[in-house]
Amino acid sequence: MDRSSNFDKIIVIWKLTVIETGVDKLQVLKEALDLHKEKLQLSRQQLLLLEHLESNKDNRKLPIIYAVTPTYWRYVQKAELTRISQTLQLVPNVHWIVIEDSEEKTDLVRNLILESKLIATHLNAKTPPFEQIKDKDPRWKRHRGVEQRNMALAWLRENLQLNKDKGVVYFMDDDNTYNIKLFTEIGKVKKVGVWPVGLVGGLNAETPILDSTTDMAGFAINLDLILAKHEAVFSYAMEKGLQESEFLSYFTTKEELEPLADNCTKVYVWHTRTEKPVVNGIVQGLEV
Ligand code: UDP
Ligand code: MN
């Protein structure tokens, strides 16, 4: 048995001792590992990794953030997903739910999720052809991501249990720009939290306190509410631009919204949009 595969096993056990949330069931194991640290002859890098695990153990007290990301194929997809997955790697206790707008799950997304090492669920839900975005046709804009977000809601409701699983749900589009401070704010959500979103609706920022509309990136909902209100879904019938507010009205009133990000004075997320690149040629034999 070589040293590196032994080390993999140690890491698994060590991780268990760190993330196990029950009464410290694995305390004996943990003490044994600590005691024999020397004999295990770990490299400096391996010791650093263990330290990292140890210092993160308080994270288990944080609520899980379910980050819901619809995504579809275009030339910039891998770039967008690389950016967002590496943002999420800086966030403790996140569960990434990626829903591909496709007939089948693709290797591109599958491999990217694997490589990210994030706790993730990979789903797919294709937007029906009549709802698909027609290039340059603004009338179809409002239908983006509906099917995929509903698929994530269904997954949460099927796989998690009310009063048992705890967390917060955030709709995290693949093309926005996120400050990791946002995730600390999301962790504070009791029912529905709101905050400003930069670069949206023709403004430098939109704040839920002053404006009647809320961007998809500007709120998060406690998992309890998502699990309790089964009827709450996104629909094509919702008014253009009012999809978010209509969805929120299933859970709360405007007065009850919890203003976060320093009472809605800070911008921690931007509704950025990536320019469509002009691609005239394909480089063969290159993984892009
Ligand atoms: N999206 C999708 N299928 C589409 C178009 C968009 O799954 O046909 C996803 C996209 O990847 C993003 C979200 O839906 O995560 C919102 O889309 P987009 O960013 O294009 O919308 P906008 O920024 O204009 O609101
Ligand atoms: Mn977008």
Secondary structure elements and their pairing?
Blueprint: H1 3-19, H2 27-35, H3 44-55, E1 64-71, H4 77-88, E2 94-100, H5 107-116, E3 119-124, H6 146-159, E4 167-171, E5 177-178, H7 181-186, E6 192-194, E7 197-200, E8 203-206, E9 219-222, H8 223-228, H9 243-248, E10 258-259, H10 261-264, E11 269-270
Parallel strand pairs: 1-2, 1-4, 2-3, 6-10
Antiparallel strand pairs: 4-9, 5-11, 6-9, 7-8
Helix pairs in contact: 1-2, 1-3, 4-5
This protein binds uridine-5'-diphosphate and manganese (II) ion.
Uridine-5'-diphosphate (UDP) binds next to strand 1.
Can you describe what's shown?
This protein has helices at 3-19, 27-35, 44-55, 77-88, 107-116, 146-159, 181-186, 223-228, 243-248, 261-264; strands at 64-71, 94-100, 119-124, 167-171, 177-178, 192-194, 197-200, 203-206, 219-222, 258-259, 269-270. By secondary structure, it is of the alpha/beta class. Strand 1 (64-71), helix 4 and strand 2 (94-100) form a beta-alpha-beta unit. Helix 1 crosses helix 2. The model has no long low-confidence stretch (mean pLDDT 87). The chain binds uridine-5'-diphosphate and manganese (II) ion. Residues 173, 175, 273 line the site of manganese (II) ion. Manganese (II) ion (MN) is lined by residues 173, 175, 273.
